[in-house]
Amino acid sequence: MGSLTAFVIYAVALYLGYTSVGIIPVAVGISLISVWGSFYNSDKIVLTMTGAKVIDHDTAPQLFNLVHEITIASGMPMPKVAIVEDDAPNAFATGRDPEHAVIAFTTGILRVMDREQLQGVAAHELAHVANRDTLVSAVAATTAGAIALMSDFLLRISLFGGGRRDSNGSNPFVLIAALVAAILAPIAAVLLKAAISRKRESLADATAVAFTRNPTGLRRALETLAADSTVVHQKSNAVAHLWIESPLDSKMTSRLFATHPAIEERIANLRALEQTGPLNESA
Amino acid sequence: MTGIYVILGVVALLVVIGIVQYNKLVRLNVAVDEGFAQIEVQLQRRGDLIPNLVETVKGYASHEKETFEKVVQARAQATAAQGVAAVAEADGMLTQALRGLLAVAEAYPDLKASANFLSLQEELSGTENKVGFARQYYNDTVRALNESIVSIPGKFFAGPAKVVERDFYVVDDPGKRAVPNVSFN
Lengths: 283, 185
Prior knowledge:
The structure holds 2 protein chains of 2 kinds.
Chain A: H1 2-15, H2 23-40, H3 42-50, E1 53-55, H4 61-74, E2 80-84, E3 91-94, E4 102-106, H5 107-112, H6 115-130, H7 133-160, H8 172-212, H9 215-227, H10 263-275
Parallel strand pairs in A: 2-4
Antiparallel strand pairs in A: 1-2, 3-4
Helix pairs in contact in A: 1-2, 1-7, 2-7, 4-6, 6-8, 6-9, 7-8, 9-10
Chain B: H1 2-60, H2 65-80, H3 84-106, H4 109-113, H5 115-150, H6 154-157, H7 174-177
Helix pairs in contact in B: 1-2, 1-3, 1-5, 2-3
């Protein structure tokens, strides 16, 4: 979101004739401010974007209890719990730090899953909060934006000349290199973002098991998600990485660009944990 | 002249290490206290649910006197318990008694279907899980504290920080210890 702002400002500046290099720091600065703003208010923005309604203990006692159980297991503060009206089973976590976290579940997931499964899901989502994944994704987005900005800058320098304009035109090799960079860099940035997001999903699974000491619940929850074919109605790319199961149709996007690891892979990992024996025999 | 600087530097380094270790031990000690307080909060909450549960079950199964008495007795003991070991023991007994009560409920379909019982059952199993997780968290904090106290350099600072090794919360639950019955039919 921040990089987009920077691009718009940069484009406007170019249009107005400010081709000087001096505009770059200004654009980067403004984009950083906007990233900070969206990071600081991420809980409210995401709640509005997904239409999640915050609930309390009396509205949904079981769900509230489940989340409370995990906060006790992890020693974390109680997050806000929200419900999204959507038939597709899914859940997500957001918020810049544990004190401002929100965990949301769709009405679909509450309908199809039993207590043990939901506990696994709640643990996975709280693990995202504990691992500061919102911070990580904000950093990833900024980095991706910066890479795109740099490649664009490089292209402009070589196209319009960076000073030695009046010698004998721009060097064709520099131009080609810049063109290639301009095309490849944004793709690389998206790949980077997806890779980071996938790593965080697997890490969140592991952290969730550390909280509950029960890989079975999460494994069974993922199996239910894998068997389910309904997809969350809002296919917004912006919040895709938040959900426990990717809301974007996985067949449309290749593995490399996927924000989530293959669900079968995650199930296999949890199964391996189950086989290593009883984890809950702590002292 | 350089000799003085070296000595000053070493002393400053030692002071910094000392402060860091001292603070770490104090922090871990507070975490253990918090962990135990959380167990007590959840046990208290479970205790508060019991009269309601007993009344509800009584409405449908008034002649199961023995089971009710066991629960009430175990609850009284749990309320009176002090210290980690005693609380853990009373907790285990109450868990047993409650299991008996819920087993009684199984025999009464009307009771099992009543909304009041269902919501009580959810609260009870939720609290039961919370007690379990609070116990797990407490034991994790105790392990972290005890490890720092017995290992170097924490060993040297445990005395000044007035921090001692703490007891693990061990539940003596016969139900959990029992060897599962295996039959080869």
